[in-house]
């Protein structure tokens, strides 16, 4: 028969709140929220969840953007990691100008380009082209110098479905136990486009295009935990689509940890789902988010116009990934 511990008076000690909380729960530290009223004077900011994802009000993207507004837009992106604008019909040039607020237009990926601007990628899906990017990912982590962020406008929306989900990798890291955080910091992981749907897509284009891509973009290594240089937050920087393995550990440990982190990052606690209207606009930070474009609308059409941006001093400046791969133009990094 089990005995009951008592104190010197014979009374049974009561359980403390700390011991109760330790049973079947996780210790989490509350952080102070961003003071929107004092930080933003020229734009309206409406968060969609605490310190993640926000609507931006009062900015007409069809007109030149004032410098003080640009500064606050950059701050909003660092603070909230993905920002949204109400539907506005902007041109390809205006979309590139918006991307230029946050960095310089980047070489992008293998997608076809708009005839209006070489830095605008077109991702068109419909009856003859089923969507195939419905997988959690961070854009273009297979580049040696990945894009800092992305600007998209959905110019044609399906009658139903077609949402995009975003997850905060900084919130995901902050919610991990201190021991796991310490284990992950200092590790690197190998990223490659070859484990993604891009390999099959390029193979359909032709042998030359596939070989061009293999030669130009070998696997690269990035930190598993990236400290955001602008917000200071630590972010998990691995994703299902492009991260092949964690370096320097047993393969089985690597695969198990990548599965865990991928599932952890996409918990609803760290995620929003965005319903589009035609010509809606989103900007997100690739250093601190992952996203997932749902494919539930097929066979209806959905047209996405995309511009990625990178650091102004990036060695990739002026390069066009699509042109280089499809037409064999050499690319030196």
Task: Supply database-style keywords.
333 residues; alpha+beta; nine-stranded mixed sheet; three-stranded antiparallel sheet; globular
Summary of the model, kept short:
With 333 residues, this protein is α+β, with helices and mostly antiparallel strands. It has helices at residues 17-21, 36-39, 67-80, 92-102, 169-174, 178-184, 198-205, 207-216, 251-265, 321-327; strands spanning 44-49, 52-57, 82-85, 104-105, 113-114, 117-125, 149-156, 164-168, 188-191, 220-223, 225-227, 234-236, 243-246, 271-274, 280-285, 289-293, 302-310. Strands 1, 2, 3, 4, 5, 6, 7, 15 and 17 form a nine-stranded mixed sheet that branches. It has a three-stranded antiparallel sheet with strand order 14-8-16.
The N- and C-terminal alpha carbons lie at a distance of 73 Å
- DSSP, total strands: 17
Low-confidence region ranges: 1-26, 329-333
Structural class: alpha+beta
Strand content: 25-35%
Q: Which percent range fits the helix content? A: 25-40%
One letter per element, helices H and strands E, the order comes to HHEEHEHEEEEEHHEHHEEEEHEEEEH
Shape: globular
**What value does the Rg take, in angstroms?**
23 Å
Average pLDDT rating: 87
Taking the sheet with the most strands, its summary is: 9 strands, mixed
Please tally the helical runs, counting DSSP H or I stretches of 4 or more residues.
Answer: 10
Task: Walk me through this protein's architecture.
- With 333 residues, the chain is α+β, with helices and mostly antiparallel strands.
- Helices cover 26% and strands 25% of the residues.
- The strands form 4 sheets. Strands 1, 2, 3, 4, 5, 6, 7, 15 and 17 form a 9-stranded mixed β-sheet that branches. Strands 14-8-16 form a 3-stranded antiparallel β-sheet. Strands 10-9-13 form a 3-stranded antiparallel β-sheet.
- The longest helix is centred in the C-terminal third of the chain and has 15 residues, at 251-265.
- The chain starts with 16 loop residues before the first helix and ends in a 6-residue tail after the last helix.
